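Action item from last meeting closed. Structure (247 res):
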């Protein structure tokens, strides 16, 4: 690129000089023509130089110094230094698993069979003790039998006492299940009754009148409707009385 520019500038300079010369030649006035008689030949005299013919003095231009300008260099982009990257820890290497030790199988040792111990021999009892032992055994059996009998009797007594104590409640519960008579009376009748061994009604009577014959009859009828009652246990209460009020 630089030699081509210098050659172009030289050609431009030469063209400029030629243009100036042609312009100076065109502007120059016509020279005087000298005629010497008729026999002489006309002679055109030219100056010794191209400068004599010009109106002025044509001086040669000094060559201009061509300065070769280097093409501007683009600034090289300076990359910033890379950020220091923290060194990542190397992944832990897999620890090789230790191979299990091979243990040679040992055949089970046969256990020694224990020898049976000698059973102690029964000692022979001296004669004369057999009768005494037999009598002692019989006495022990009698004591155990009496204890068992007394135990069963005690349990039966407890059961019987519980049945005796709860029987009146069973009778009153049976009477409460019978609907009360709807009698318009402000009095109260008391009925006394007795229960038979089988739970039936042995007898019922008016122990206290309410003052209303209708209420007295309704009270007796209520006791009769409640029978039969549960059979009373041995030794249980069998005579009862109930108070019935009118509405």
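Sequence:
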């Amino acid at each position: 690129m630089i030699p081509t520019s210098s050659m172009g500038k030289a050609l431009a300079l030469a063209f400029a000089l030629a243009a100036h010369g042609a312009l100076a030649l065109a502007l120059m006035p016509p020279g005087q023509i000298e005629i010497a008689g008729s026999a002489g030949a006309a002679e055109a005299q030219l100056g010794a130089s191209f400068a004599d013919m010009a109106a002025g003095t044509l001086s040669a231009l000094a060559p201009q110094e061509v300065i070769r300008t280097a093409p501007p260099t683009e600034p090289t982009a300076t990359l910033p230094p890379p950020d220091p990257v923290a060194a990542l820890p190397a992944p832990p290497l897999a620890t090789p698993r230790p191979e299990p030790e091979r243990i040679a199988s040992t055949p089970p040792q046969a256990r020694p069979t224990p020898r049976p111990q000698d059973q102690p021999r029964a000692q022979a009892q001296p004669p004369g003790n057999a009768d005494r032992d037999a009598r002692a055994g019989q006495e022990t059996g009698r004591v155990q039998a009496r204890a068992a009998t007394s135990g069963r009797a005690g349990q039966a007594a407890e059961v019987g006492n519980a049945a005796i104590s709860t029987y009146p409640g069973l009778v009153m519960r049976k009477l409460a299940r019978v609907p009360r008579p709807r009698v318009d009376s402000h009095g109260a009748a008391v009925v006394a009754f007795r229960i038979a061994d089988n739970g039936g009604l042995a007898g019922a009577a008016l122990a206290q009148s309410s003052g209303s014959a209708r209420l007295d009859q309704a009270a007796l009828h209520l006791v009769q409707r409640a029978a039969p009652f549960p059979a009373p246990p041995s030794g249980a209460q069998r005579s009862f009385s109930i108070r019935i009020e009118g509405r």
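Note appended to the action item: Residues 129-176 form the longest helix (48 residues).
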